[in-house]
């Protein structure tokens, strides 16, 4: 009992951290993305249709039933399109994901794994490789579960489906629910999913169908086979129903069938989809599966091939490698989810990036072990079947890349990432504790793991800001004869380029007249003359008119001398001139004044 | 200390670290550094038919500060308008202000910590 309350406590803590992270994540993304525009996109199963009033529940329902829009719609009625609406929605979704993934891990092995898995899906402990401007992939910490941004209902629906499939395949389940009831609930979830995000249902749909087919060939248990067939049928019927009653015009006068045909991914565009095509495919496929599964002696196949897990796992590792290498070489990919990345991560930059590469590789190799570990330790063999679903979803992803079949929407294996990273850590812990030297090893390893995590997370968040917007040398100036190390903002340069193009004269203070000279190559003003102008107010006031100049630029070097000690000019007086507008300013004191002709 | 307890304390310790990370995040969010802001006037439009002038200006972080910060804007054209904005790393926030009566001079002040930034336009 004490143990159980420990886990509840941990789960609550994880949920609290998740709530906080969701809050910050939402701030980070800003409200612009998750606004009503986002709702209109995500709530339609990827279909764009103009609706006149997104706040009208009745109208939203006609076009975009259950899923996203109903839940958000209700919140919108109370809080409108505000921060609170989106925070409540996302916080609720995030906590639900944490709970579902805990059940997932708990069912597979035990509550400890459940806690680890939920921890890994709640915190930015995974690694994702982002492509930078130079084409290198750089590691960055990332929430291990799929981003909740825009996929909230999908991940919840997918996880619920996984949990339900586990229950359905478990023929020794002690729950009062019969399998039929579970299947009914699964159907309900599939239907909602089909209506709210067709593409993502297709990815799970493809994986589950192949998965149930695989079970027909490899499993000896007739009941498991039948259950798997039922799961497969449930998915097919759900997709069919969503098509018939929502997308096509067979039973629905407000159908959006034409758009649906256009949105069917990639290479299927040209196939004309209609009711008879679906129906024929559906009937043929299931009769085939039924005939094959109950008439073939599966023992031969399963004993000689499938139970050799190393073959399966080698295939798994190979397909990941090929996928990632492929995507690495494909310029359209801007990010690759770790820890499986082994592409052109040649850029090491600094110790932090190196540490992240190391961390990524560590997780990659640990997950090999974790796969076996789950297989061996899982209490019931039927739970372990879900791992095959992972392999199959990976295969579906791989094939979708090769066929150019909306691969971005086929990443069902993402949802298994926290499971693998969590179990990798759990496995390592158990493995080390079996070694005789555990009194030394465990504290050292724990210390190192926590140190790495702390280092990465704290570095990520509270490191001092790095200057990114300042150019020491601007290329436009560097290419000229007049070189000077000018510490100005990129945006000042942009300002000046624009002006230079119009052959306008730009002023800077005397100290920094190289910038002036660079932009006005044949300078009619000597350095000495310029100095006089800035030190004498009478000359200064007439300067703009005399030289047809429009801008006065004051850069960092003008304000603080080269040794960073003495202040050279006080620009306060320029601020007070009515004929000068401040059109650019920054915290370093750099300014661009615009002469507005007010001296006339 | 048995294995179960070790496991528990490891997770608990990690959580304490992570919660403190969240608190530090919040602190930095509400108390932004006064360095690394820039602002410039992007566009000024005057619509003669409706007598409405639109002033568009950009506020941007000069620094990669990793976390968003909260800033206050104050726009003055005789009467004060105040606004609050959240700026992310590398983010430009484009803000457009409309004036129905053309003011003599507009001042935009962005409170980024101790040193406010001021833009002005006649």
UniProtKB/TrEMBL annotation, chain A:
Q: Does the keyword Electron transport apply?
A: no
Query: Transferase among the record's keywords?
Result: no
Name the species this protein comes from. Answer: Marine Group III euryarchaeote CG-Epi1
- TM region positions: 7-31, 84-104, 111-130, 150-169, 181-196, 202-219, 226-245, 275-297, 309-327, 347-373, 385-405, 411-432, 444-462
Domain of life of the source: Archaea
* Protein's UniProt name: Uncharacterized protein
Q: Which UniProt keywords apply?
A: Membrane, Transmembrane, Transmembrane helix
Automatic annotation (TrEMBL), chain B:
Q: Which UniProt keywords apply?
A: Membrane, Transmembrane, Transmembrane helix
Bilayer-spanning residue ranges: 6-30
Q: Which organism is it from?
A: Marine Group III euryarchaeote CG-Epi1
State the protein's name: DUF1616 domain-containing protein
Taxonomy, superkingdom: Archaea
